[in-house]
Design goal:
- The protein is an alpha/beta fold.
- The chain has one domain: Rossmann fold, CATH 3.40.50.720.
- It contains eight helices and seven strands.
- It is globular.
- Bound molecules: nicotinamide-adenine-dinucleotide.
Length: 249
């Protein structure tokens, strides 16, 4: 029980990889807050069915009032915030297209969810973590930044921003005992995103890996638990690529 009684917020926790983070944290004894635009209740029920406590907060990470309410409701229910997993992003529903064809509004929306969302959620939990003298913020980046994936330039750029945000915030928050790290997953079969990728590209992803198989959400849970737990207390400012070695050239 490496996360026993820790209070872990997972944004975008209703579906896909975020749901796996919620279940994985619960299995290690955490109390889990499922924050999502989509209905968080099914994931809350799944966590509770495993004997752990959970709270669902329907919220949009790009709206400041929602992120403040997320922190307030978490504190009202559990009294503390140990871990924030900044996982929510516009990703699976994005169409792949050349950069000249990306509508300006889509570029802005990607930045507002994938980057402003991190900024707002970190600000919302900071006072509680500061008062506790400890906290962990785990941001979800992507291997696409390291590879320079085309036809997805707003997404790839936003995930590069996640790496910069992680390093700068870690530098700012070290004095408060708050660790800030990132996980960069490779292409992971997580539901929605599978509709936007051809079989050829899926295979090409697998073949580019040192470990030649498809990546699934559960492949990311071990690293998430490690970064959320006390085992990683002297690690901050880092981005860990969890992609079967696909981004090493
Ligand atoms: N699946 C992959 O191949 C892959 C690879 C690298 C990185 N990632 C990253 O991992 C994370 C999860 O990926 P996924 O495949 O599960 O994505 P997904 O698109 O399947 O799920 C994203 C979740 O975020 C929620 N969400 C979207 N906008 C939101 C908002 N404004 N406020 C709150 N919640 C919001 C959605 O409702 C959904 O539950 C994302 O940050 C993604 O960029 C995924």
């Amino acid at each position: 029980m490496r996360l026993k009684d820790k209070v872990v917020i997972v944004t975008g926790g209703a579906k896909g990889i975020g749901r796996a983070y919620c279940l994985g944290a619960a299995a290690e004894g955490a109390r889990v807050v499922v924050a999502d635009l989509a209905d968080p209740k099914p994931t809350v029920k799944e966590v509770e069915a495993r004997g752990a406590q959970a709270l669902g907060v329907e919220s949009d990470v790009s709206r400041e009032a929602d992120t403040q309410r997320l922190a307030t409701e978490t504190l009202a229910r559990f009294g503390r915030i140990d871990v924030l997993v900044n996982n929510a992003a516009l990703y699976g529903t994005l169409k792949r297209r050349p950069f000249m064809d990306i509508p300006l509004e889509e570029w802005d929306r990607v930045m507002s969810v994938n980057l402003r969302g991190l900024f707002l959620c970190a600000r919302a939990v900071f006072p509680a973590m500061k008062a506790q003298g400890k906290g962990k913020i785990i941001n979800i980046a992507s291997s696409t930044f390291f590879k320079g994936v085309p036809h997805y330039i707003h997404y790839t750029t936003s995930k590069g921003g996640v790496v910069g945000f992680t390093r700068s915030l870690a530098r700012e928050l070290g004095e408060f005992g708050i660790r800030v790290n990132a996980i960069a997953p490779g292409f992971t079969l997580s539901g929605e995103n599978e509709k936007n990728i051809s079989e050829e590209r899926k295979q090409a992803n697998v073949q580019a890996r040192m470990l030649q198989r498809a990546e699934v959400p559960e492949d990311l849970v071990g690293t998430l638990v490690f970064l959320a737990s006390d085992d990683s207390d002297f690690i901050t400012g880092q981005t860990i690529l969890v992609d079967g070695g696909g981004s090493v050239h």
